[in-house]
Amino acid sequence: MTDRPDHGHSLKGAVERIADCRIVVTTQPWWLTGPVLGVIVNVKLSRPQSHACLTWLKQQLGPQPPPALFLTEDTTSAALREARAFGAAACLPVYTEPRVAVAALARLVYPHDTVTDLIVGRGVARAGRLLEDMFHTAEAGAVNIAAVEDALEPVLNAIQEGGLTRWLDVVWEHDDTTFQHCLLVAGLTTAFSQSLGLSRTDQHQMARGALVHDVGKAQIPLAILNKPGKLEADEMAVMRTHAALGYGILKSSGNCDPVALAVTRHHHEMLDGSGYPDRLSSDAIADPIRLLTICDIYAALIERRPYKAPYSSADAMRVLEGMGGKLEGALVQAFGKAVASPSGSPSRAVA
């Protein structure tokens, strides 16, 4: 709640790293439209409209209101008493940095979680919801590309703040193996992109591609997709259609960027021409495809399946390193350094 919309937007941006957020302006009518877990109040208490708005808020929140953090210009004892009368659980100076204010509110709302935990959890949850919705609509042949964009910053923030290990530890708890794989690839691709120093725009491109790369599996029969064992030759032939199917789904959806289209169709191509669906080789395979393919193979090796134990990180890297001629060696080595960093080693990927 604010009477300073300009400051409200910076606070909203900081809150949205850990939770959904809405700005309420004291000079405009508003109503609560869902549950409220916490409130940041940034108003001048001396203004009559602030009193009216805070009184309305108290009525809306009921007898057990969520924690409220007040940002105040006046830090006198009288002003703090007034803030507490309006429900303040804590008060900070109005000039407090947005991230600091959000961290203070987070401690009130989630006393057992760190801000980093919340950022990582939000990233995985946003990506997970996207995948569920996307795979559902992809069955009919198209997806909402705009919804993919909404998941990109939460994913990038989660990896940047929490590192790959925390991301993977949360992803391991996801039940659906297809979604788990896509979440693994998204985290690995983002961590690899950040370790390479790619621009934020390029990180967005790679995360976008990682999230949509397996969308074609939405049209693979579940008996094949979820088979608890090795696929027969005819079943494998059907499974291998997912790359071209995904490309077709994204093309039909419109407004999909070329990198996402390319990695979706070609993430199973190999430099020696032995991949599918188009048997591309060498220079015909662009760098984003080479990068994501490494992450895709590594994810498949370390993930848990009912019929196989996961590879350890070291064993998975040995497999990648043994794929000379199929994968770009320099990228494989760079990827190994990314996942071996203190924040990158997948702690639960043990054989």
**What's the number of helices?**
15
- Within CATH, the superfamily of the largest domain carries the name Hypothetical protein af1432
Proportion of strand residues: under 5%
Distance between the termini: 50 Å
Show unreliable segments. 347-351
Number of strands: 3
CATH architecture of the largest domain: Orthogonal Bundle
* Element string (H = helix, E = strand): HEHEHEHHHHHHHHHHHH
Counted up, domains total: 2
CATH class of the largest domain: Mainly Alpha
Q: Key terms for this structure?
A:
351 residues; mainly alpha; Rossmann fold; Hypothetical protein af1432; three-stranded parallel sheet; 15 helices
Structure characterization notes:
There is one protein chain. This protein has 351 residues and is mainly alpha-helical. It folds into 2 domains: 105 residues, 3-Layer(aba) Sandwich (Rossmann fold), CATH 3.40.50; 226 residues, Hypothetical protein af1432 (Orthogonal Bundle). Helix content is 56%, strand content 3%. Helix 12 crosses helix 13. The longest helix has 27 residues. The C terminus is likely disordered.
Outline of the structure:
This protein has 351 residues and is mainly alpha-helical.
How are the secondary structure elements laid out?
Layout: H1 5-15, E1 39-41, H2 48-61, E2 68-72, H3 77-85, E3 90-93, H4 98-109, H5 115-138, H6 145-171, H7 177-195, H8 200-212, H9 222-225, H10 233-239, H11 242-253, H12 258-266, H13 287-302, H14 313-321, H15 329-340
